[in-house]
Amino acid sequence: MLQPVEGELVPEVGYHIARREWGRGYATEAALTCRDIVLGRLGFGRVVSIVAPENLASRRVGEKVHDSMREFTWERSGRPMCLYETRRPATA
Fold it and tell me: How many CB atoms lie within 10 A of CB 18?
């Protein structure tokens, strides 16, 4: 899904897993695959995950999937969020 991030629409990888399946690596595996599809096959230059600071489980997934994280105020909610991001490597 494209999300507004600082005035730009950016593809976001999100994850919702049934509680009984938590801790099995499914969110990380699915998010890694989606990240690679967005940057590869779909050709986007960057992909993000937007996570509430208090959602520690999703933050751990974001740390495994993305290259960087910074806090920002999300236009949709008006509140501080964690922005995890990966950019496609530049080609030579």
Answer: 7
Q: At which residue do the structure tokens 């806090």 appear? A: 71
Instruction: Give the residue numbers spanning the domain of 12.
Output: 2-87
Is residue 50 a contact partner of residue 82, using CB atoms and an 8 Å limit? yes
Total of domains in the chain = 1
Segment 13-56, tens digit of pLDDT: 988 889 898 889 999 999 999 999 999 999 999 999 999 999 99
Task: Please give the model's pTM, rounded to 2 decimal places.
Answer: 0.90
Degrees (nearest 5) of the Cα angle 52, 47, 69? 45
Beta carbons within 8 Å of 3's beta carbon, 6+ residues apart: 9, 10, 11, 12, 48, 50, 76
CATH of the domain at 58: 3.40.630.30
Given this model, what pLDDT does residue 91 score? 66
